[in-house]
Amino acid sequence: MNPTVFVRDRFTWLAYLMLAYFSYLQAIPGPLMPFLRGELGLSYTVGGLHFSALALGMVLSGLLTDHLVQRAGRYAVFWTGGGGMAAGALLLAVGRHPALTIAGAGIMGLAGTGLLATIQSALADRHGPNRVIALTESNVAASFAAGLSPLLVGGLQRAGIGWRGAIFGGVVLWALAYAIYRDERLPVSKAPDESPAPSPAKRVRRSLPRAFWIYWTVQIFGVAAEWTIISWGADFLVGSGVMSKAAASATMTFFFAAMVIGRATGSRLTRVIDQSRLLLLTIGIGLAGVLLFWLSPLVPLTLIGLFVAGLGVANFYPFVMSISVGIAADQVDRASARITLASGLAILLAPQTLGTAADQIGIERAFGLVVALLVLAAVVSAAANRLVARQSAPEHH
Prior knowledge:
Layout: H1 10-27, H2 29-40, H3 44-72, H4 74-94, H5 98-127, H6 131-158, H7 164-181, H8 198-205, H9 210-239, H10 245-251, H11 253-269, H12 275-295, H13 299-313, H14 316-327, H15 332-361, H16 363-366, H17 368-392
Helix pairs in contact: 1-4, 1-5, 1-6, 1-7, 2-3, 2-9, 2-10, 3-4, 3-5, 3-15, 4-5, 4-7, 5-6, 6-7, 6-10, 6-11, 9-10, 9-14, 9-15, 9-17, 11-13, 12-13, 12-14, 12-17, 14-15
């Protein structure tokens, strides 16, 4: 393949489709939570266990996927991961006890993250020097698909089909993709053919730079804020008396649509503005949106706040990932793995913390946790930017 030309071949379209599928189902527990809690009589704390199970599955998958790929191959992990995520989603939909629905969410995280990791590594191998284009386009598709989750959950509930129809639709998508693309070969990893050298082992033992770990902390705060909004935004709208369950679930589409716009805009701005400055700007935008969403007594302003919050938090993950990998340029694989771990830990802890707090003080007051997370992200990000600036200053003298 000519490295100067980006070609979307059959596998590339399959990868985009399956990443959209993954993101759609990954985002669906938040919008459906008001309905699930109502049907099963769940507290906010038990409801939050679904998000914790999803995140725990993601963390475990991050530790296991590379070993599974070495043993079974990418093809097996790719399709089994997608099928396992569909099975977990079905259990979430049809389970009549929280133990079953929580287990379904955990299976979704465990199997789905294996699919995600395989998609990203296979795309990178297929497109080589053009992998940035492929990965960026796939993430825009992922954000768009995630935005469909609340729209379909609320819309199908209003139409009388029921919120479960949104899950069944995702499962059908996986089945159709398998029927059409099951003979498609995935790019084979070159890693097993490479003989181990002393230098990679030394890189593994060497500590990552201090600045990396500061940005790693920023990632925890930023992803925690993003996923707390995703997980509890609909419940906040219901609990504060702003709108009905169906309307609240559908309204979360504003947030995901803003994330699509935010990521598309952010990728262009990085060409003219330093990413460390953009990171602070996006945190500020996210904080302004959350404050408006949280405090406004008027529904139109609440919706505007939700949209602005989505614009801001959209780029936490890609910006911090890019900055961190740049700081640890000689340990890219290790740095990427640690940033992914930060995201999993954030998703594991933050939604559950807010859910527990909501049971004690109400979801309106508990939502202030998101504001605190963004303030901490801004403070730590500013400190990280100053540290990196001081370390690079001598190079310019």
